[in-house]
Design goal:
- Strands 1, 2, 3, 4, 5 and 10 form a 6-stranded antiparallel sheet that branches. Strands 6-7 form a two-stranded antiparallel sheet. A two-stranded antiparallel ribbon has the order 8-9.
- The termini are far apart.
- With 179 residues, it is an alpha+beta fold.
- Helix content is 27%, strand content 25%.
- It has a single domain, classed as Alpha-Beta Plaits, CATH 3.30.70.
- It has 5 helices and 10 strands; from the N terminus they run H-E-H-E-E-E-H-E-E-E-H-E-E-H-E.
- It binds 7,8-dihydro-7,7-dimethyl-6-hydroxypterin.
- The site of 7,8-dihydro-7,7-dimethyl-6-hydroxypterin (ROI) has 11 residues, from strand 4.
- The site of 7,8-dihydro-7,7-dimethyl-6-hydroxypterin has 11 residues, from strand 4.
Length: 179
């Protein structure tokens, strides 16, 4: 794309949920999430802001390891569907393993919010369907922007509607730089 054309492409603020509870050949869940954030930087037109790192009890079958979770926010010129494809590629590169439905996984990258848009296609639902039930998403999102609204609801009210059990912050946002 020429420089002139580049100026004409709108950027959108997006929030991505990151989760992992399995290691891969190149490291543990923390390292996998660190590498994923490095890969997200390539999709961004500016700074990638990252929440602290959270340890959370699994939602779904309980006989799986606890998860590490975080949220990243950045501006991108990709459309929502292009972004989805790029995230799936990053998951594949991390050697994504998903052993069963709602079971353990090496790397999960979910588009939580794409600007103010609501998208409902067979491949993509935005805001992400599970946000309101997932404190491991709402708590790090709130950390990045306490003024956010999700489906017209202030994020602080989303949190109030949830239990904050089973989740604790284990590192502040410097966990990314410490790779
Ligand atoms: N549970 C937690 N705690 N964190 C996750 O990221 C996560 N991701 C999932 C399911 C299996 C629903 N459970 C999770 O996809």
């Amino acid at each position: 794309m020429s420089v002139a054309a580049n100026y004409l492409v709108e950027s959108h603020l997006v929030y991505i949920g990151l989760g992992s509870n399995l290691s891969n050949d190149s490291g543990n869940s923390r390292q996998i999430l660190q590498q994923a954030v490095q890969a997200l930087k390539k999709l961004s037109t500016g700074l990638v802001r990252v929440s602290g790192l959270y340890l959370s009890k699994p939602m779904g079958p309980q006989d799986q390891p606890d998860y590490l979770n975080a949220v990243a926010g950045f501006e991108t010129q990709l459309t929502a569907h292009e972004l989805l494809a790029a995230l799936q590629q990053i998951e594949q590169q991390a050697g994504r393993i998903r052993l069963r439905r709602w079971g353990e996984r090496t790397l999960d990258l979910d588009i939580l919010l794409y600007a103010e848009q609501c998208i409902d296609t067979p491949e993509l639902t935005i805001p992400h369907v599970g946000i309101l039930q997932r404190n491991f998403v709402v708590i790090p999102l709130l950390e990045l922007d306490a003024q956010l609204h999700i489906a017209d609801m202030p994020i602080k009210d989303c949190l109030a509607a949830q239990e904050s059990k089973g989740i604790c912050q284990i590192a502040d946002s410097s966990w990314v730089a410490s790779s």
